[in-house]
Write a sequence for this structure.
């Protein structure tokens, strides 16, 4: 990684030394190099961290005789819904990684693949263990609570996908062009009128409704941990948008409309 200042930001790949000289008072440029260690592609990291939760959850769901030593366990209806939602979410993420996402950076430090996988794989096992347990009990308010949670989950998943498609269309393939995200004809993208990172808003919404549907403490903890991290990311991206684009909408919040 190269910097023009010791404590500054990394230089973009397309920046030229000649342009840096023009912006320098002395006409000289000093570059600082930082070794980021072994690198791995973003696509590889995403595929690894998302494939794990999908298969781990299915192991608990499909093989209760191995996990719980109870071959005669009978699942509640919500247990089937929860598994379907979980698999749908991570299958969507895998497909988005391959066909939708366009990354601004080619690689990241290889240590991230272990850190991210530990988070996703660990929570997958934690949530799956309780949601598929033979002693799991259905939500307190029965079918109404289950179907509200299921509908809310699917609604937010469609919203999340819609935002990812809109962001992909902002950046032509093979380029690093950055534009102000704006709503499209897709009604789910109207959230861009209120927040900078509606993909995170929808993502948090998905897991809130998943937690409502399952009435599961591990799912709620997973939701809280993910929301905390996404709020941090959203605030950072929101600040960068406002610095980068002079005409960026000032009424927008980072992730929660009118609030945050």
């Amino acid at each position: 990684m190269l910097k023009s200042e010791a404590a500054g930001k990394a230089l973009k790949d397309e920046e030229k030394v000649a342009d840096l000289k023009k912006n320098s008072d002395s006409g000289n440029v000093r570059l600082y190099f930082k070794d980021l260690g072994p690198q791995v592609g973003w696509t590889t990291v995403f595929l690894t961290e998302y494939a794990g939760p999908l298969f781990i959850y299915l192991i608990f769901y499909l093989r209760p005789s191995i996990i719980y030593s109870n071959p005669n366990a009978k699942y509640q209806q919500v247990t089937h819904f929860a598994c379907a939602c979980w698999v749908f979410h991570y299958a969507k993420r895998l497909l988005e990684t391959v066909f939708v996402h366009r990354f601004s950076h080619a690689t990241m430090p290889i240590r991230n693949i272990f850190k991210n996988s530990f988070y996703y794989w660990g929570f997958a096992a934690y949530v799956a263990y309780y949601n598929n347990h033979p002693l799991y009990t259905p939500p307190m308010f029965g079918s109404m609570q289950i179907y509200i949670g299921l509908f809310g989950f699917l609604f937010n998943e469609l919203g999340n996908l819609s935002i990812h498609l809109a962001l992909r269309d902002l950046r032509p393939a093979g380029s690093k062009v950055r534009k102000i995200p704006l709503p499209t004809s897709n009604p789910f993208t109207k959230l861009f009128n209120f927040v900078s990172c509606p993909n995170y808003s929808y993502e948090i919404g998905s897991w809130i409704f998943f937690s409502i549907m399952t009435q599961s403490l591990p799912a709620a903890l997973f939701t809280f941990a993910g929301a905390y991290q996404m709020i941090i990311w959203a605030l950072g991206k929101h600040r960068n948008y406002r610095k980068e684009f002079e005409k960026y909408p000032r009424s927008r919040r980072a992730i929660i409309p009118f609030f945050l």
Summary: The two ends are 32 Å apart (CA to CA). Residues 194 and 252 are 5 Å apart (CA to CA). Helices lie at 17-22, 42-62, 64-67, 77-99, 111-131, 142-170, 198-214, 217-244.
